[in-house]
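Q: Structure tokens for this one, please.
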Amino acid sequence: MEILTTFIDIVLHLDKHLQVLIQNYGVWVYLILFLIIYCETGLVVTPFLPGDSLLFVSGALAATGSLDVHTLFLVLVAASFLGDNTNYWVGRFVGPKVFSREGSRLLNPKYLERTQGFYDRHGGKTVIIARFVPIVRTFAPFVAGIGRMRVPRFVMFAFIGAIVWIGSLVYAGYFFGNIPWVKNNLSLVIVGIVVLSILPGIIEFLRRKLSAV
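A: Here is the predicted structure, written as tokens:
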């Protein structure tokens, strides 16, 4: 319970915690942010790490001069792109081994074939859109690897997705984060970003529940 409370406090007061990191570690904070985004996008065991809110808040801090916004953008694009590719190759390597039991309901090879077909048809769009949905963006490249989406196609859309996701939120924080109302209500803005990012998943879940009734 204490761990959960601490995590919620970090998410809701990201600006204060990032300022402490900047004061204590200086330029090394770029590496810390790199590792957070890399792990959030590249490791299926850490989808809970802050993503959208972290990008916006770091952009807002860059507007105060604490960070260089263009360096921040490049570092985090690299982190996101490398994270996606790590996840993809883990999925590509593990997938055929995991989905090898013909009689298994959960690990049936037919599911692998369906996943591969889905990514052949919609892969690019899925990789880009998933960037803006927490948890989904962590698992989408993993599933793309399991489905053996063609490497050049995945790399291209992963790169585009990284630029669009990082650029939109970092520069949004940079240009809007220091507006007095936003600055004075940053915790509320962070909650809003989190709610908006998970809203598509909630809507899809409710849609499926209602259609099954």
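A few notes: DSSP finds ten helices and no strands in the chain. The mean pLDDT is 78.
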